[in-house]
Amino acid sequence: MPLAATGELVGGAAAARSAVVAFNIITLEHVEAVVAGAEAAGTPVVLQVSENAVKFRYGRLLPLARAAAAAAERAAVPVALHLDHVQSDDLLRQAVEAGFSSVMYDASRLPYAENLAATRAAAEWAHAQGLWIEAELGEVGGKDGRPPLDAHAPGARTDPGEAHAFVTDSGVDGLAVAIGNTHAMTERTAALDHDLLKRLAGALDVPLVLHGSSGVPDGELTAAVAGGIAKVNVGTALNMAMTRAIRDFLAAHPEAVDSRKYLGVGREAMAREAARLIGVIGTPRT
C-alpha cells in the first residue's frame, strides 16, 4: 500500500487513546523485521532513520530510505517513514525527496532560547513542505554515549509550563518529553514520572512522544500510553534481540560463514520483539 503519513498515524493513535510504535532502523534486516512484526500484530508502524544511522551508512540517506520505502509499499499494514533526531539542516532538507512524511528536529542540546529559535525555523520549513515535525524539550539523556542526567538535574525533566510556551511559540506538531526515560538503556529499569506526564498531557494539545523506551518495563510503557503518550520510539531493544540471537547462533555453529544464516536468525528475533512490543504499547487507553 502507499506510504502512510506519520502525522495521521500519530493523530489516529491519540484519538483512539492508544500509541503508535516507531522503530529505529539501521540495516535492511531491521526494516524487514519491523514490517514483519507489524504485520503479525496487524498494526500500523513507523520506520525511523536517525541522523546517527545516516552517519553509519557513510552519510548517505537515500539507500536505506529507498529500501524502507519499498518495504513499506509492499506491507500489509500502513507504514510511515520518519527522520529522527536531526541536527543537520542539510539532512533535514533531504527528507521530502527521500520519502519521509515527518521529522524530529533535535535542538534540545541548546539553551532554551536557541532551541526555540532553531526549532521554529525548522518547523516553518517543514510545514511548507507538508511535513509533520516533532521536537524535544528537557533532556532525554544517553545519546552518543553520554551518561543520563540525574533525575533532579536542571533540564533533566520537561517542565509543563515551559513546554506549553515552547509548543505554542515553535509551532511543532508533537513533543518528545523527558519524564525519566533515557536513550540506549540495555536494562529495563527506568521508572517514569507519571505525575509529570499527567501534567504535561494536561498542558499541551499536541501528541506526546516517549524516547528511550527500550529501558522502560512493559508495565511502565502501558502506563505511559494510559497517561497520554501517543508515539513510542524503540531502538536498542531491537538491537539487543538481534545481537543475542546472532551470538547464540554463532556459539552453537562456530563453523558458520554464510551471513544469511546468522542475519536471518537476528531478523527473526527482531520481528518477534517488534510484534511483542507493539502488543504491549498499542493497547488502547481506557
From TrEMBL:
<feature type="binding site">
    <location>
        <position position="106"/>
    </location>
    <ligand>
        <name>Zn(2+) 2</name>
    </ligand>
</feature>
<dbReference type="InterPro" id="IPR000771">
    <property type="entry name" value="FBA_II"/>
</dbReference>
<feature type="binding site">
    <location>
        <position position="211"/>
    </location>
    <ligand>
        <name>Zn(2+) 1</name>
    </ligand>
</feature>
<keyword id="KW-0479">Metal-binding</keyword>
<dbReference type="InterPro" id="IPR050246">
    <property type="entry name" value="Class_II_FBP_aldolase"/>
</dbReference>
<feature type="active site" description="Proton donor">
    <location>
        <position position="84"/>
    </location>
</feature>
<feature type="binding site">
    <location>
        <position position="85"/>
    </location>
    <ligand>
        <name>Zn(2+) 1</name>
    </ligand>
</feature>
<dbReference type="GO" id="GO:0016832">
    <property type="term" value="F:aldehyde-lyase activity"/>
</dbReference>
<dbReference type="InterPro" id="IPR013785">
    <property type="entry name" value="Aldolase_TIM"/>
</dbReference>
<dbReference type="Pfam" id="PF01116">
    <property type="entry name" value="F_bP_aldolase"/>
</dbReference>
<protein>
    <submittedName>
        <fullName>Fructose-bisphosphate aldolase</fullName>
    </submittedName>
</protein>
<feature type="binding site">
    <location>
        <position position="183"/>
    </location>
    <ligand>
        <name>Zn(2+) 1</name>
    </ligand>
</feature>
<dbReference type="GO" id="GO:0005975">
    <property type="term" value="P:carbohydrate metabolic process"/>
</dbReference>
<keyword id="KW-0862">Zinc</keyword>
<dbReference type="GO" id="GO:0008270">
    <property type="term" value="F:zinc ion binding"/>
</dbReference>
<feature type="binding site">
    <location>
        <position position="136"/>
    </location>
    <ligand>
        <name>Zn(2+) 2</name>
    </ligand>
</feature>
